[in-house]
Amino acid sequence: MKDAFVTGGCGFIGSHLIDRLLADGCSVSNVDSLATGVKEYVAHHDGNKSLKNHYFDLKDLAKVEGAMAGCDTVFHFAANADIRRGLDDTFRDLERNVITTYNVLESMRKHDVKDIVFASSAAVYGDQKTFPTPEDAPKTQTSFYGASKLSCEAFIEAFCEAYGMRSWMFRFVSVVGERHPHGVTYDFVKKLLANPRELEIFGDGRQRKSFLHVQDCVDGFMHAHKHAKGKVNVFNIGNVDTITVSRVADIIVEEMGLKGVRFNYTGGDRGWIGDAPVVHLSIQRLRVLGWEPKIGVEEGIRRTARWLLANKWIYDKRR
Ligand SMILES: NC(=O)c1ccc[n+]([C@@H]2O[C@H](COP(=O)([O-])OP(=O)(O)OC[C@H]3O[C@@H](n4cnc5c(N)ncnc54)[C@H](O)[C@@H]3O)[C@@H](O)[C@H]2O)c1
């Protein structure tokens, strides 16, 4: 791999991926519409000739084809990553996730690019009964986002079969860490900055989730890309343990140095339609290849809260 084509490189995980690819000596073409991403996440590479940023929407197939010329490996990370907003607009996940993935695959076919690394999600499992959940668990779709990611996986698999491509698809649990721009930790810090006396928590707070630090996440998928040799390689990426949403709130209150915060629960065993009360994935398949997460769930949450508190500008940018 010498010339990487990255989508979503101005986003949270994509920007860490770009740091890693440049450090490894690759050239990177990054496509980002700035729908949720920010230029600041890659600004420390300004002037580096190995990084080319293209600001357009992946909905434009001709532009995707143009930007992909000369690349040998695709890292497709751009997506609507906000599960809840799918309920407001049922076309959103189909257009932003499935159509855009088709455009990336079609451009690969035209340029004869063979390798794609894809950011899928634990959301493809929907409501589960088996924990930790293995990759081959039966899947019941409970969100448009999860359905769109599973559709993307299916399209990628079909392109691999038809055109001799290879794929590495990763079902992430919630990823946290520096530059974290959405999700429960982000929401709690935001709410507590606005009102340090009380915190609204969606659900009953007993939802149990796994969180993975972004460095472990990038290490995990780069490791698998290097070592897994199949045509279609599907992996869970998560942490060994889980934490309740109430405990996440406790940690953030501690990190902010607050006392006596009242937690107001909206009630029910899930935060919203499509939320899973438990997310805990089996990471055995990736461990067999020699990868292990290094940063624990609680430490990941703490580092995220510290970064958000030191970088409050992100709340204005992502408003
Ligand atoms: N962060 C998590 O906890 C998590 C968990 C599971 C899966 N994922 C997946 O990982 C990937 C990255 O997530 P993230 O947390 O970095 O999200 P993010 O919102 O920070 O990054 C997504 C990036 O894609 C860009 N983008 C979105 N639609 C685009 C389009 N049509 N054309 C061009 N650019 C577009 C955005 O501007 C943004 O920079 C996503 O595919 C997401 O679904 C993330």
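^ nicotinamide-adenine-dinucleotide complex. The chain is about 40% helix and 20% strand. The pocket of nicotinamide-adenine-dinucleotide is lined by residues 7-8, 10-14, 31-37, 57-59, 77-79, 81, 96, 100, 119, 121, 172, 174-175, 181, 183 (CB under 6 Å).
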